[in-house]
Amino acid sequence: MSVTWNPWHGCHKISPGCKNCYVYRKDSVFDRNSANVTKNSTFNLPIKKNRKKEFKIPKGELVNTCFTSDFFLKEADLWRIDAWKMIKERSDLKFFIITKRPDRFYFSLPEDWKDGYDNVEIACTVENQKMANLRLPIFLKLPIKHKAIAVSPILENIDLTPFLNKNIEIVVLGGESGKFSRICNFDWVLNIRNQCINANIPFLFHQTGSKLLKDNKIYNIPRKFHHLQAKKANINFKIEEYYENKQ
């Protein structure tokens, strides 16, 4: 089971992968400015308790963290201090964080972080070769116990081979969603899958995106089927083993 914790909301577009950001897309429906970074009322969710004085998020849950912003955003530097305190307090939970800003990792980092908290997994997002070459060398040097690479949305063929070492626990890949989504070429997906197999690193194709190019044909896939169609492709590698190790 998993829950989502968004301690703050809003972000700034910094690379091609941000062009059709789903946060901006959803905010536009409510005429909300996605570039305005605000602290959410659910900020204290990890340590909130019910009437029985029990944590609302039970022990052992996976907490998808800051999915409507970037955890290492500059505007959140002060808030992040308290966010880290809650993450440490709830060592019985597993926090999963995705970032496009590995260069800001050390801002507001806890003094007791050392080589990382056991209950934190951080994924660095890349969408093309340029971003992979820019972000991943920085990311690989960071003191994080559990590291992942998120190729999302994939925008071109990418060579991850130089970055697939023993410190990367999984590569997660997905196409882009939305009305103006760009094409996800299945050949690109298979290429990265093969790179992961050669490096013996788990690979998860988590969503097709809205436009999937396969065998010279473009398939327009409704949002509700993105995950299902990716699963039906049956190309995941060592995923069962990955999840078993997380338990």
What is the secondary structure topology, with strand pairs?
Elements: E1 2-5, E2 8-9, H1 22-29, E3 38-39, E4 62-65, H2 77-89, E5 94-99, E6 120-126, H3 129-140, E7 146-151, E8 168-174, E9 184-185, H4 186-199, E10 203-207, E11 211-214, E12 217-220, H5 226-232, H6 239-246
What does the radius of gyration come to? 18 Å
Count of discrete alpha- or pi-helical segments spanning 4 or more residues? 6
In the sheet with the most strands, the strands line up as 1-4-5-6-7-8-10
- Helix fraction, binned, reads 25-40%
Number of strands: 12
Calculate the terminal CA-CA distance, rounded to whole Å. 11 Å
Low-confidence stretches: none
- Structural class computed from helices and strand pairing: alpha/beta
What tags apply to this protein structure?
globular, 6 helices, 3-stranded mixed beta sheet, 247 residues, alpha/beta, 7-stranded parallel beta sheet
Task: Describe the 3D structure.
By secondary structure, this protein is α/β, with parallel strands linked by helices. It has a domain at 1-108. It has helices spanning 22-29, 77-89, 129-140, 186-199, 226-232, 239-246, and strands spanning 2-5, 8-9, 38-39, 62-65, 94-99, 120-126, 146-151, 168-174, 184-185, 203-207, 211-214, 217-220. The strands form 3 sheets. A 7-stranded parallel beta sheet has the order 1-4-5-6-7-8-10. Strands 9-11-12 form a 3-stranded mixed beta sheet. The chain starts with a strand and ends with a helix. The model has no long low-confidence stretch (mean pLDDT 97).
